[in-house]
Amino acid sequence: MNKSFLTAILWTVTLLPGWGQNAFAPAEWVNERIGTAHEGQTFPATGVPFAMTQWTPQTRAGNRKCVAPYYDVDRRIQGFRGSHFLSGSCTQDYGSVTLMPGNGALKLEESARASSFDRTKESLKPYCYAVTLADYGIDIALTGTERAGIQRFSFQRGGESWILVQANSAAGDGEVRIDPVQQEIIVTNPVRRLYAGNGKLAGFNGYAVVKFDRSFRVGGVWSGAEQHPEALRQAGGAGSPGAYVFFDLKPGEVVQARIGSSFTSVEEAKLNLRAEIPDWNFDGVVEKAKAQWNAALGRIQIPSSATERSIFYTALYHSMLLPRVFSDADGSYPGFAGEGRVETAKGFTYYDDFSIWDTFRAVHPLLTILEPARETQMVQSLIAKGEQGGFLPIFPAWNSYTSEMVGDHAVAVIGDAYVKGLRGFDMEAAYRLMRKNATEMPATHAQYVDGRGRRALDSYLKYGYIPLEDPVADAFHGNEQVSRTLEYAYDDFVLGELAEALGKKEDAALFHRRGQNYRNVIDAGTGYARGRHADGAWIEPFDPSKTASYITESTPSIYSFFAPQDLPGLVNLLGGPKAFEQKLDAVFARGEYDHGNEPSHHLAYLYNASGSAWKTQEQVRHVLETQYGDTPEGLAGNDDCGQMSAWYVFSALGFYPVTPGTTRYEIGTPLFDKASIELEGGKRFEILAPGASSGKRYIHSAILNGKPLERSWLSHDEIVKGGTLFFEMTSSPERSWPGQTAQNEKAHAQ
Question: Backbone dihedral region of 376: left (phi > 0), alpha (psi from -120 to 50 degrees) or beta?
């Protein structure tokens, strides 16, 4: 029996089940400030995982592109928002509502009413946010459920006090009404599209109903500089409409507000409120939200240092915010693509805001492990969108087609779920939609402009690539012909895998052939992805390390490595293992690797394909240690709906899904001495790596369930069936793992 195996047995014995679960409260370790500097674009999203509406302090007004509700640099709070911002993105909030309490002179405009606060006394937890508005002497606490929220305002000064409610709508949009009989304020906030159809109405509204636990006096309504005291309704106007009410309070008295939200109707907002927060038990809502976060985050357990725990559980928290619940408690939701109809999700929850170009890489694969039932419902939601709109959406957000970014990665999300054994959705219906996306253009140009179908599919089918002469209809990201070609080829491969699994042999052959189209935009002469004309000529001049209009958010050299569906073929195309490795080395040596943008995310793991797993371990650990931190600047770029964070979660555990749509995960290097993943059916997958937490980053040997592991990858089944993976770690590069014999290891050491 070798030493590594004995060590593995001893470490397994010391890993007691639960690791003291009675005291395990990972929600307490989340640092919601991480990413709230400008780079990360995250915000303290308070409530429960994947909520329809997330409650947050507002430090910046309006639904403006690339403006999150909250930034750590800001020193004044304008109100408390029920937000639908895509966490970590350069998009805009939509259908949101803001509440703000005050006393003394009434102030309605956002910057005028804003109050200073003490950051050292601000409490940010996933389940409850609390702060004191210093200018007014009001203590605030807020929390939420999936579709409702509750806010508690403690007025320390008393006297005539006010609370305003504002629809964060475009100027001229929206309506706010005061109902003095029901003692409530009702908000209707039309949603406008972004990207394809930019500025057009999306065909649905954000609705909110605000109820108070004590009687108010009618104040009035306003929009912009226009104010109407004692009026009950404000529709449109020069700004975002709002309403305000007055309370006569003694010092220390409390006013609570319950808010129901919906994307379907005012009545549904009321129903959601009754279903989820039927009474005024604020602390009870907090405890339920806390329990949900601890259960969700507790699916992974790491006994590590305080800083590592904070970064890890914040990353896991950020990966559990989107896609969001979009259907009401009774299953109602607005039909996809702005048709104005109401649909009903029967037997599943309907989700929206899929930042698929980002999240197909790691967020959705992570959910196949941690939350397969929820991921199944997300797949059902994608299929419903395709059936209602006619095409699978490329990047469904605002419950609309957007044509944002490149690729057709709903194929990857659905395919990844299916090959990993998730069922409960209509795979034949999904396949018909995926095949349609891959083979048909929309019937009319207007539908294409509206965002349906693959961009430039006709050229892709004609040439096997998208030539530079094709002016791809995308007003926001230029043409990006090479990136589109590479990503379509990957999607075609996934479609081929699905066709094979479904017994569609001709389709399997067709789409597997198309999966090789990546070769058509990689110049074998230079070994780099390169723009290509319709006559086959390569673009000149050419510098692979410089950004180019035919590449998405990256460089030609980085996109040269995007053929995850055929890594052995890519290695050979780029000159063989040594040349492939040298090209990767050059990307890192030049500082060209850009972890803040997704095209770089799989690169460090590609050394496994060249037979140099130790370099994967080296680079992955470097990224983990340098691109993430426990501060507001702790994300190297936009979190993009949790993708940056999900990369960290996977990589810290020691493996990563380089090729979603297959069951394979590439092994990197674990960050922790111990980690345990709770799986369905009470199973566990445990990762043991003694010395990893103290700096050992290289793997000397690996043992999976008592047997030596002589490969640098794991299968999905090996993880979800439970078991133990033991790594013997070392501080020096171990070029011998995996796959070398003991004799070769000895020769290498000499």
Answer: alpha
Q: Within 10 Å of residue 234's Cβ, how many Cβ atoms?
A: 25
Query: Contact at 8 Å (CB) between 452 and 446?
Result: no
Distances (CA, A) of 560 to 424, 524, 529, 531, 553: 37, 11, 5, 11, 13
Give the integer Cα–Cα distance in Å for 619 and 621.
5
Q: Among 647, 649, 640, 633, which Cα is nearest to 26's?
A: 649
Q: Biggest alpha carbon distance in the chain?
A: 89
| CA atoms of 451 and 522, how far apart (whole Å) | 28
Query: Pick from 139, 119, 148: which is nearest to 46 by CA?
Result: 148
Burial 172-207 (b: 16+ CB within 10 A, else e): ebbbbbbeeeeebbbbbbbbbbbbbbeeebbbbbbb
Average pLDDT per consecutive 10 residues, the chain (750 residues; last block may be shorter): 52 45 82 96 98 98 93 98 98 97 97 97 98 98 99 96 97 96 97 94 97 98 97 96 98 98 98 98 98 98 89 98 98 92 97 98 98 98 98 97 96 98 98 98 94 96 95 63 98 98 98 98 96 97 96 97 98 97 98 97 98 97 98 97 98 98 98 97 97 96 98 98 98 82 33
Q: Which amino acid is at 686?
A: E
The Cα–Cα gap between 594 and 98 comes to 36
Has this prediction a pTM greater than 0.90? yes
Task: Provide the phi-psi class of 705: left if phi over 0, else alpha when psi is between -120 and 50, else beta.
Answer: left
CB contact set of 249 (below 8 Å; sequence gap of 6+): 155, 158, 159, 161, 255
3-state secondary structure of 43: coil
- Distance (Å, whole) CA 342 – CA 568: 48
Give, rounded to a whole angstrom, the gap between the first and last alpha carbons of the chain: 24
Q: At 525, is the secondary structure helix, strand, or coil?
A: coil
Provide the token pair at 264: 């379907």
Beta pairing class for 128-133 and 522-523: unpaired
Where b means 16+ CB within 10 Å and e means fewer, 337-363 reads bbeeeebebeebbbbbbbbbbbbbbbb
Which SS3 state, helix, strand or coil, does residue 725 take? strand
- CB distance 735 to 618 below 8 Å: no
